[in-house]
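SAMPLE LOG
Freezer: B-3
Tube label: C17
Construct: single chain, 571 aa
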Amino acid sequence: MRRSAAVLRVAVVSLVVLGLALPPLAAALRPLRERVASAGAAASSGSWADEHAFYKRDDNDMSPYSWNITGTYKGSWSFAGATNGSSRFLEFVTSKGDSVLELLSTPTKISGVHYVQGTITFHDVIDKSHDRGVAQIRLEGVYIWPFRQLRMVANSGADGEPLQEEDYFLSNPYHLLRIFSSQVFQDSSEEKNRRKNSLTHDMEKHCNIEIAAKVVRVSSNQNGNEFSYEGEHEKYRLEGLMESPSVDDDGECFSSILLNSTSLNVEAYYNKAVNYTLMVTFISFLQVLLLIRQMEHSNTQSGAAKVSIIMIGQQAIMDAYLCLLHLTAGILVESLFNAFATAAFFKFVVFSIFEMRYLLAIWKASRPLNSGEGWEIMRRELSVLYSRFYGILLGGILLMYELHNFLRPLLFLMYSFWIPQIVMNVIRDTRKPLHPQYILGMTATRVAIALYIFGCPSNFMRIEPDKKWCIAVTTFMSIQAAVLLLQHYLGSRCFIPRQILPEKYCYHRKVEDSTNQPIDCVICMTTIDLSQRTSEYMVAPCEHIFHSGCLQRWMDIKMECPTCRRSLPPA
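STRUCTURE (predicted):
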């Protein structure tokens, strides 16, 4: 099978080379120029359809080495005429749209002739049999370097032999990261199955798809591409025509299509992905510093008990998902493995070391009576804690897989991790459980990655920006952070009407001293002056009296009376 394919390639190349010397054969290989001329596509001199363009050499741009046109070309397609005159197999939504052409060029034994394989992808196209918005067609042909001419025809690969360009696609980060992002963030499972099929297998029975194009090298400082070019990277522009005469002389399958594409600088795209991983690594480092700051703020048993274990667990699950996603992207794109593996490692450090350790500290502080029990009971309850965490982690993956079409609402729900802490503050009337720097820092770093993926118009994953979703999630996170800051400075129940609040114990109540004997504070061992204002001392429910500052600092450590160890209500 491989031998027959090789013989076919040599035959195609030989026919094209003979066409250079014999005008009748060259005209046969060339698509229907008369229709292009009638549509006005070749009105300007020097276009690909000019009678002498195929034979004209560029004397100012000759070199001992031929151009290598391997790469990804992104541009636009449009009808040569006003509209699509036929739609036997493809139904075009508009008269123009975006297209992506990926080529793999390999030299042949004939000097200046390259064998080319690739695919062309049309957007804003509906295939009637599959009903999708993207059509992909496999191509093969030859590139004549001295004349800068590219001739390609459709190839379905029906002989069962894998095409050579597949190896190139499997090493191209531009192509692989697009697959990764489409499967994770955009396409449903039904659309994934649709993309596996090529249109060529059905169309080759009825249509002859032919592409004739001219390849021109352009200056690197010209605009027209979404990536900036630096250094001496070659940049090419491809201009041509795609036609589809019918096999059974029943008219065209679709009207002639003009193609205009510019090569992408894959190296710049590679650098953009690396810069993203550096951003994730820096964000992870900041989150480690913020976690350390928060752990120092709540380093006592009473302080840790004020923090919501659901809030920390939800953030740990988010970091675990980010770790898995970056590791998967690194495995998929081998050339970017080091960059994505570094980002995945830092996310692993954040959730597995710091957040899980803090989670365990909060769990121990919330059950002080059981912390002194036997090791077997402690180990059993600890196993339950870890089982619940990893069970929710795996269950969330299955849930997102099943509800793939609702991924963005699910992400919006995951960004509600501050709400459990807000509710806990109101219920328990806790005082300053979170450090303000932790609140602001975590809010900014958590939303940064989401804003890049769904808000940056030129993100490396090529996901269409969703400004409404970005504004909604930023507003939602800002409101949560604002409520936490209000609770920190004005009180946990500052926004709750007094009429619906439960009755709260008053520590600053008047005490009648009938004995006229001095009372000492057991915390600082100094005398308490009961004749002063009631704000200078506090009276516990057990009638023990302490200085206000002394008891408040004690309650930050333990919510127990220093004298009788009776439980104390929130102040």
